[in-house]
Amino acid sequence: DDKIQALLEKTVVMKLNGGLGTGMGLEKAKSLLTVKGSKTFLDLIASQVEWFAKNKGKVRQMFMNSFSTSADTKDALKAHKEIIAGDWEVVQNKVPKIDAATLR
After folding, report:
1. Is the CB of residue 40 less than 8 Å from the CB of residue 70?
2. Greater confidence, 20 or 66?
3. Cα angle for residues 86, 84, 59 (degrees, 5° grid)
4. Nearest to 62 by CA among 98, 86, 40
5. Dihedral over Cα of 88, 92, 93, 96: its sign
6. How confident is the model at residue 85 (pLDDT cuts 50, 70, 90)?
């Protein structure tokens, strides 16, 4: 069980959270659409990871945002402080990029 916990602590749940929404006429991330009561897709995603961390083992949650979804996502995640503590996102098309030749 200690080995499993150690592996889980190195695990990152990465969610694609940017792209195609503007082509659908949205002005913010699709994950901010309300789906159940006052809960958004983003709330449900965050709740799943929080439940898993509490009941099975701690994992990190990260989001791959676009420039147009980053600020809205961070604002919406204020209710989920553990997720936005530290590195919580990767922004698409932002440097530094990985060099194909050196993988750095």
Report:
1. no
2. 66
3. 80
4. 86
5. positive
6. confident
Structure tokens at 47: 């709740």
Q: pLDDT confidence of 22, banded at 50, 70, 90?
A: low
Confidence of residue 43 (pLDDT cuts 50, 70, 90): very high
- Percent above pLDDT 90 for the chain: 31
Q: Which residues share a beta bridge with 31?
A: none
Vertex 52 angle, CA 48 and 55, to 5°: 135
* DSSP line for the chain: -HHHHHHHHT-EEEEE--SSTGGGT-SS-GGGSEEETTEEHHHHHHHHHHHHHHHT---EEEEEE-HHHHHHHHHHGGG-HHHHSS--EEETT-SSPPPTTT--
User: What is the distance between the alpha carbons of residues 37 and 48, in angstroms, rounded to a whole number?
Assistant: 17
Amino acid at 8: L
